[in-house]
User: Which sequence fits this backbone?
């Protein structure tokens, strides 16, 4: 927990009897699950920011089937290739229910693993399940992390502030991003949209970072369980974009072949901005 800073005055936080406190006496208690809430009330744009409970429940149920395990394993492998057995600090921003954070930590026990998400409900679940990871509730656009404190920052399908990433990642540190490939969930998109556009494939230019390796991960899901398909649908924006007619077509099917297509890009921080 000593990697987090006060979200109000930006001073370091010290842990004492399950309370994080800065020198200006701003205090943040650890929840019974072990996480800390570092999202100031005035920074909230809604009562419960982040994905809604339906989306989170669906994502949790789908991820527990381990259909995205190849991605989790690949991320753990990438982190291991960067860190070796060194005691590096890794931050998963937009960690949700902690699926990737937990997997990275379990395969890289020497790293100091942090997980951050704006959803209190998601972080609460993550902290219950993945005890070896330090989780906090916070915004990816105002990271409660000290300057240049992070060796590796992981971002899986999560919006964030590039300037904040530049600030917290050490010089020579790494940024690992996961974005959808052109065929990702293509069969669902084909059902919903009349004109299906493939996802943009070119890697993003991240100022202050140099693109190194780029990994393409593709495989197909062969599903016979309707609940799994509906959870996959509801954990994405497709859940509220699909019409009743299209959903009825989906539900009348007995077997589904769905493409998974991920772009994993590994950047190195090259300069202080």
Assistant:
């Amino acid at each position: 927990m000593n990697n987090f800073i006060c979200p109000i005055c930006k001073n370091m936080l010290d842990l004492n009897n399950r309370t994080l406190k800065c020198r200006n006496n701003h205090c943040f208690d650890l929840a019974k699950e072990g996480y800390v809430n570092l999202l100031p009330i005035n920074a909230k744009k809604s009562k419960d920011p982040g994905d809604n409970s339906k989306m989170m429940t669906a994502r949790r149920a789908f991820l527990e089937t381990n259909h995205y395990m190849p991605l989790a394993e690949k991320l753990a492998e990438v982190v291991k290739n960067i860190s070796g057995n060194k005691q590096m600090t890794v931050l998963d921003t937009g960690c949700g229910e902690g699926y990737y954070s937990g997997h990275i930590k379990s395969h890289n026990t020497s790293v100091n693993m942090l997980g951050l998400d704006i959803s209190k409900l998601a972080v609460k679940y993550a902290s219950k399940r993945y005890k070896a990871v330090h989780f906090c509730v916070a915004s990816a656009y105002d990271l409660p992390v000290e300057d240049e404190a992070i060796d590796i920052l992981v971002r899986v399908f999560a919006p964030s502030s590039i300037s904040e990433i530049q600030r917290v990642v050490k010089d020579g540190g790494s940024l690992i991003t996961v974005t959808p490939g052109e065929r990702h969930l293509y069969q669902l998109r084909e059902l919903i949209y009349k004109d299906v556009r493939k996802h943009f494939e070119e890697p993003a230019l991240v100022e202050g970072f140099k693109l190194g390796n780029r990994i393409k991960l593709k495989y197909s899901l062969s599903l016979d369980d309707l609940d799994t398909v509906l959870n996959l649908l509801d954990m994405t924006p497709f859940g509220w974009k699909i019409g009743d007619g299209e959903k009825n077509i989906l539900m009348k099917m007995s077997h589904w072949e769905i493409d998974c297509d991920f772009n994993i890009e590994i950047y190195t921080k090259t300069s202080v901005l």
